[in-house]
Amino acid sequence: MRVEQLYHIVAIAQTGSISLAAERSYISQPALSSSVSKLETELGITLFKRTNQGVHPTEVGEAVIKKAMEAIGLLEDIRSIAEESTQTLTGSIHLAVEPFITNSIMVNTLTTFKNRHPNVNVLMKVGESNNNLRDIAAGKADFGVLMKTCDHPEEKDLCIKELFGDQLVLMVSRESPLAARSSVTLAEAMAQPLVLYNTEFATDCGVSELLRKYGTFHAAYRLDSFPMLEKVISLNECSAFVPKFMSEYFVNRESIVPLDISDTRLDISIVLAWSKRHHLSLIEKEMMGTIQSFCSMFDFPVKGAELK
C-alpha cells in the first residue's frame, strides 16, 4: 500500500469520477485506475462500484476511504508542521468565487496572499454561487467564497462559515426615473426589467431563488459577464439586485445609482464553503484567514468561530 493510493481513492470518492480524479491528481486515467485496482487486489476487496451516475464507494469502501482521509489528514498535519517551521508554503489552491466578491474582497486578498506566499499557486474560477456550490460538493474546488441567499441541497455535504451578513439593493442607471430617489419598494424594484448574473445555462441563481419568494419578476438578461452586466445597467436597459457592500464599487462607475429597498430586507450572507470530505491544508487555512481579514473591513458583524 502506497500513500499516493490513499490520495487516489479519496479523490475518486470526492469527485465521483475517475477522469476528474485523475485530472486533479495530475496523472492519466489508466494510471489512476491501475493504482486503485492494485490496492483492491492487495486488500482483497472492491472499493468502488461503477454506475451510469458515476463511481461510488462500496460499503466497505466507505470505511476504507474514511480511514484514508484520516491518514491523509495526519500526513497533511505533518507537512504543515514542516512548512510552518520553514515559513515557506507551497502547493496549489483551487477557489470558486462569486463575481461580486471577486471585484472587491478578492482583489486585495490575492495580492496580499501572493506577497506573503509567492510559491503557492492560486487557481480561481469566477462563477455564480449556486453553480460554485455544486463544484465544491463535486470536489472541483477546494473551497469557495460565495453569496448565500437561501438553503441549497448541496449544503448538507458542506461546511458553511459566515463571513458577514448583508442585504440586496437595486442598482439602476443614472438615467432611470428612479435615480433621483434614495429607495424603492420591493414591488417597484421587481417591476423593473432585471439583469441577473448566471453561469452555464441554469436559471437557479441565488438571486432568482430569493426573489421568487416575493412574487414574479422579469429577467431581461442572464449574463455570465460582469462588465456586460455593468454596461446594460448603465445604458438604462435593466436594473440589478446586488449586495449592498458593492454600492461603492458601482457608484464609482458614476453612471449607476444604488437604491435601498424600503419595505423589505433581502438578507444574504457572504460565506466560506468547503466539502466535509475535504481536509483543509495549511495554505487553504492561510487563504481563508486572509479573506476573513479583508471581510472584517466592512461595517457588518463578522460571525463564526476561528478555523480549527
Short synopsis of the structure:
By secondary structure, the chain is α/β, with parallel strands linked by helices.
Short descriptors:
two-stranded antiparallel sheet; single chain; 308 residues; D-Maltodextrin-Binding Protein, domain 2; eight-stranded mixed beta sheet; 42% helix; disordered C terminus; Arc Repressor Mutant, subunit A; alpha/beta; elongated
Shape: elongated
Give the strand tally. 12
Note the main sheet. Answer: 8 strands, mixed
Q: So, CATH architecture of the largest domain?
A: 3-Layer(aba) Sandwich
> What Rg is obtained from the alpha carbons, in whole angstroms?
22 Å
Mean pLDDT: 87
What ranges have pLDDT less than 50 throughout 5 or more consecutive residues?
299-308
What's the CATH H-level superfamily name of the largest domain? Periplasmic binding protein-like II
CATH topology of the largest domain: D-Maltodextrin-Binding Protein, domain 2
Query: Percent of residues in beta strands?
Result: 15-25%
Helix content: 40-55%
Order of helices and strands: HHHEEHEHHEHEEEHEHEHEHEEH
C-alpha end-to-end distance? 30 Å
CATH class of the largest domain, please? Answer: Alpha Beta
Briefly note the structural class of the backbone. alpha/beta
Number of spatially distinct domains:
3
Number of H/I helices: 12
